[in-house]
Amino acid sequence: MFKxxxxxxxxxxxxxxxxxxxxxxSGSLPDPATFVPTPGDVAQNVQGVGNLGRxxxxxxxxxxxxxxxxxxxxxxxxxxxxxxxxxxxRTPEGATRRMLExxxxxxxxxxNMHSDGYYGYLNGQLKGQxxxxxxxxxxxxxxxxxxxxxxxxxxxxxxxxxVFTASFSREDFRWLPRPGHPYNSxxxxxxxxxxxxxxxxxxxxxxxxxxxSALDTPTETTGDHDGRALLLVAQP
Length: 236
Description:
The chain has one domain. The protein is globular, with a radius of gyration of 17 Å. Strands 5, 6, 7, 8, 9, 10, 11, 12, 13 and 15 form a ten-stranded mixed β-sheet that branches. Helices cover 15% and strands 33% of the residues. By secondary structure, the chain is α+β, with helices and mostly antiparallel strands.
């Protein structure tokens, strides 16, 4: 264990300090092709989508738990809470371009100083995150303050549509006892993203999909997450 002497560092060195304070695994990363979720981690037969993984998956092929941050002494599980469907784009590549443009227009362009390398699971496939690149996430504000941020996973082909799943959350910024991003809310970020996409882009909110993913046990929690994902559908 080490101590982060943030107060002795210039502001330009803070990004390196934040990265050093994040929990790390030793050894090589597992092959994503080997990932097999447990049955309880998949919501079965979600209308219009299929079998949807309930949680964001880390590069170590584990359920994401906010880099080890605790909420009331409990492990915080990070849920999938947004589903984007594009029935218009002719190809997954075209749908991906439309999704990336929509995130920019919604004010959620890629920003740095976030953890990366996450995956989402749908219908037997594990796919990596957008935005792509080290330390990037979609966010409506800078890393050094309160912001809504998240990652989008896919593209997945479901029938004639392209589907993306996503996990969005609201985080604070903490200086002491070590710099980091404490959890604030899942619902606030989900609904703000939906509002901004609905007002400014081709994606329009339709409904909330029940995924049964709210946790409240003595050891684990999903905070204010209500077990649902916001569904948005792209228009022509």
